[in-house]
Amino acid sequence: MPRTIHVLNGPNLNRLGKREPEIYGRTTLAEVEALCRAAAGADSLVFRQTNYEGQLVDWIHEATDAEAAGIVINPAGLTFTSIPVLDALKMFKGPIVELHISNIHRREAIYHRSLVSTVATAVIAGLGAAGYATAVQALQGLLDAA
């Protein structure tokens, strides 16, 4: 039976391909979405991006209420600052894969403490845009093992 996976993206990820390509690469968000859809195979995929914290919280609530199978989330800058995103993720019952395009632990100290990691089932960082497909596949593996 196909499952629904939510891939949720936070602020500034709509600028992928243009924003600091030396850190985030040249792959666009549309290309990232295509990678995720290919990786999802028969599973249904909801792919979203917002620059607004409250919108991201609402989408986590939607995934929770719809009993989505799992969430892949790149909260971007909200990773390190957002208690509301953290609290919303605490309500989600399925696996959560936190994703970062860059290796946040090799960057400035402000990027080293992820609030989301405290509730994430797994964390993927530093694989570039290809990390999204890896995250979707890892989530599927977690669901298959459950």
From TrEMBL:
HAMAP family on file: AroQ (MF_00169)
Protein name: 3-dehydroquinate dehydratase
Gene that this polypeptide is encoded by: aroQ
Gene Ontology MF terms in the entry: 3-dehydroquinate dehydratase activity
Site (Transition state stabilizer): 19
Pfam families on file: DHquinase_II
Pathway membership: Metabolic intermediate biosynthesis; chorismate biosynthesis; chorismate from D-erythrose 4-phosphate and phosphoenolpyruvate: step 3/7
Subunit structure: Homododecamer.
InterPro entries: DHquinase_II, DHquinase_II_CS
